[in-house]
Write a sequence for this structure.
């Protein structure tokens, strides 16, 4: 099969195409023909060596799969050949999704939502699971609460806005002026232009100083540190970004706040919850750009570029959508 290997850590040019044997499904595993995958910040962080101790080289990386079951191993009961599935490969647990075939444990695989193409589904597995864990498992976002989503036009942010609205939350969102209409279309109640407005001033003005119940940080740095200034009492800050410096704990302490740092874990349950939102028309992933498998380097370079103008995710297509369809 064709695959994209990472023989060394470095820039986008570190990747190399290879031909290797197609893997075989073992006990409790499924072999999947990968129709689509996508690019996440985690992918370029792995590529450049941020997690070098956890990624033996050479490696096949990638963290999203949507495809069709080719074969099943002994003991598999939930799936059969021909089933359309989606999942996030076990992070740091073996080969990733930049290949024509992938083997995964039955336990982390879900049935692909019928309303999504493979490209759409592959754009959602990691970011969707991250959003679900961040907002609901960790922050406990509830009906009637308010939330500030940083980076609302991005891969995680545009899913978070929709998921929060589906829960009945009031959503503040930061984005550029160019993305404001897009973010409002996702359901955001107040869109703040991060280039010309101070989100702390806007949120406190709009809430009469009460603040928001939850902040989802996808930016880090100063954005994460200042987020404590918009928290309500007993507020929760959830960040998906590695931190390099201490945060504003004095301000958070005064508001009885809690911090959660999320590195998502794989399981079928989160995929099923996301599928329910999709079936109800409350969640739709957006793909800003699509590349072929041999365009992985260009896809990485685009996503890694600051202020790249992307809305949503960067997708990688391995099978013609016209052939795979919305199955």
């Amino acid at each position: 099969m064709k695959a994209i290997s990472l023989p060394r850590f470095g820039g986008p040019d570190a990747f190399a195409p290879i031909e290797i044997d197609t893997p075989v499904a073992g006990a409790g595993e499924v072999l999947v023909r990968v129709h689509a995958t996508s690019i996440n910040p985690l992918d370029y962080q792995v590529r450049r060596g941020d997690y070098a101790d956890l990624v033996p080289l050479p490696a096949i990386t990638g963290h999203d799969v949507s495809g069709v079951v080719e074969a099943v191993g002994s003991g598999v009961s939930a799936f059969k050949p021909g089933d359309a599935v989606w999942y996030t490969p076990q992070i740091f647990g073996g080969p990733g999704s930049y290949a024509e075939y992938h083997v995964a444990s039955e336990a982390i695989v879900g049935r692909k939502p019928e309303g999504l193409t493979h490209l759409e589904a592959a754009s959602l597995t990691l970011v969707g699971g991250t959003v679900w864990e961040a907002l609901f498992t960790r922050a406990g976002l509830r009906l009637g609460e308010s939330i500030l989503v940083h980076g609302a036009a991005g891969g995680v942010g545009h899913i978070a806005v929709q998921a929060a609205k589906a829960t009945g939350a009031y959503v503040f969102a930061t984005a550029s002026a160019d993305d404001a209409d897009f973010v409002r279309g996702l359901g955001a109640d107040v869109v703040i232009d991060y280039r010309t407005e101070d989100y702390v001033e806007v949120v406190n003005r709009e809430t009469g100083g009460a603040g928001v119940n939850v902040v989802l940080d996808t930016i880090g740095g100063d954005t994460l540190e200042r987020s404590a200034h918009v928290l309500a009492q007993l507020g929760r800050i959830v960040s998906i970004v590695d931190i390099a410096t201490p945060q504003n704990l004095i301000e958070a302490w005064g508001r009885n706040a809690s911090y959660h740092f999320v590195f998502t874990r794989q399981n079928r349950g989160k995929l099923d919850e996301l599928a329910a939102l999709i079936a109800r028309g409350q969640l739709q992933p957006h793909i800003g750009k699509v590349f072929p498998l041999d365009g992985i380097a260009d896809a990485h370079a685009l996503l890694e570029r600051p202020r790249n103008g992307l809305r949503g995710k960067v997708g990688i297509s391995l099978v013609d959508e016209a052939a795979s369809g919305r199955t």
Notes: The chain has a mean pLDDT of 93. DSSP finds eleven helices and 15 strands in the chain. The two ends are 23 Å apart (CA to CA).
